[in-house]
């Protein structure tokens, strides 16, 4: 596998790329939408909402958590997941910058 050259980009650019990659799968979008709808849940509830096997859902949850888009707390034998506002605030700031540019810009 080739060198990614991530060291040639800013920390913010690398962080935004990780966040964007984490939401770049429809199953992860579905998980985020479900968490927004119910505010928190355990992994089993998410598995019941998606047409995926439990190990697959767990892998998607892991990716979202590693990117900082969700948080998980262990409660007994279950993990309760919720949205991590900090991660989404970073995405929000990025898209607000794009939106501000688009509002001002008259492009071809």
Automatic annotation (TrEMBL):
PROSITE patterns membership: HTH_ARSR_2
Fetch the Pfam families from UniProt.
HTH_5
InterPro entries noted in UniProt: ArsR-like_HTH, HTH_ArsR_DNA-bd_dom, HTH_MetalResp_TranReg, WH-like_DNA-bd_sf, WH_DNA-bd_sf
HTH arsR-type domain: residues covered: 8-106
CDD domains noted in UniProt: HTH_ARSR
Q: Which UniProt keywords apply?
A: DNA-binding, Transcription, Transcription regulation
Q: NCBIfam families recorded for this chain?
A: HTH_metalloreg
Concerning PANTHER family, the annotation shows: REGULATORY PROTEIN ARSR (PTHR33154:SF15), TRANSCRIPTIONAL REGULATOR, ARSR FAMILY (PTHR33154)
Name-wise, this protein is: Metalloregulator ArsR/SmtB family transcription factor
